[in-house]
Amino acid sequence: MNRKVSIITPCYNSEKYIEKTIKSVQSQTYENWEMLIVDDKSTDNSVSIIKNLSIKDSRIKLFSLKENMGAAHTRNYALERVSGDFVAFLDSDDLWKNNKLEKQLDFMIKNNAKITYTSYDCIDEEGVSLDSSRLVEGKVSYSKLLKNNVMGCLTVMFDVKYFSDFQMPLIRKRQDFALWLKLLKQVDYAYALEESLALYRIREISVSSNKIDLLKWNWKLFREIEKFSILRAFYYLIFNVILKLLKK
């Protein structure tokens, strides 16, 4: 198994976390990877930290944007430059367990799966476990994902050669969800590796911490990206609302 994995990491003012994020990749038991980090014009010390680490490890590749463009543009910039057989995503404040790439890649090859995701655990801003996990199982189709996005961005991996288009739709938030939907129009299912292989950091300023805000952007996604009618968009939004309430 010698497939190369391209890891997409957008970065904006992440000096507190980016070194630990990179080191969680460097600690992987699977070593054939490249990490494409795109800095979205940070104003803190992020770029200096990344540069120092990239000097010592050529697999870490830093790109710096000349102006702040947002997560969708930043990720697309990296996606246009991948050289790997597979693409994985890891945001600049999240972490992977050290066997994440090895286990997920093995799972994909053995099951001929073109897109996969895994369970993950939650930590707080200081890296302390919140004793909370997002557990996944089975598989998910396009229509099922519309009702509940179970694919955590830090866990998704897909086969580059299988998909004709894997650019993220240019929406300010929920662009990862929009990409999963795009990919699931090109393949029947995304398959879950049920083991928890990543650590998602819950921060006060994170997009995912505001459930009302998420619902607003889901509505925008359904209407403007998926081009649903008002009635169809409302239908899927109701499922999202119910599931968000159940998670309280």
Describe the structure concisely for a colleague.
With 248 residues, the chain is of the alpha/beta class. 35% of the residues lie in helices and 23% in strands.
Question: Would you write up a description of this structure?
Answer:
The protein is an alpha/beta fold and 248 residues long. The chain folds into 2 domains: 5-205, Spore Coat Polysaccharide Biosynthesis Protein SpsA, Chain A (Alpha-Beta Complex); 210-248, no CATH class. The protein is 35% helix and 23% strand. The chain has 8 helices and 10 strands. It has helices spanning 18-26, 46-56, 71-79, 100-111, 142-147, 175-183, 211-225, 230-246; strands at 5-11, 33-39, 60-64, 86-89, 95-96, 115-123, 129-134, 139-140, 157-159, 190-201. Strands 1, 2, 3, 4, 5, 6, 7, 8, 9 and 10 form a 10-stranded mixed β-sheet that branches. Helix 7 (211-225) runs antiparallel to helix 8 (230-246). The longest helix has 17 residues, at 230-246.
Give the topology, please.
Layout: E1 5-11, H1 18-26, E2 33-39, H2 46-56, E3 60-64, H3 71-79, E4 86-89, E5 95-96, H4 100-111, E6 115-123, E7 129-134, E8 139-140, H5 142-147, E9 157-159, H6 175-183, E10 190-201, H7 211-225, H8 230-246
Helix pairs in contact: 7-8
Give descriptors for this structure.
248 residues; alpha/beta; Spore Coat Polysaccharide Biosynthesis Protein SpsA, Chain A; ten-stranded mixed beta sheet
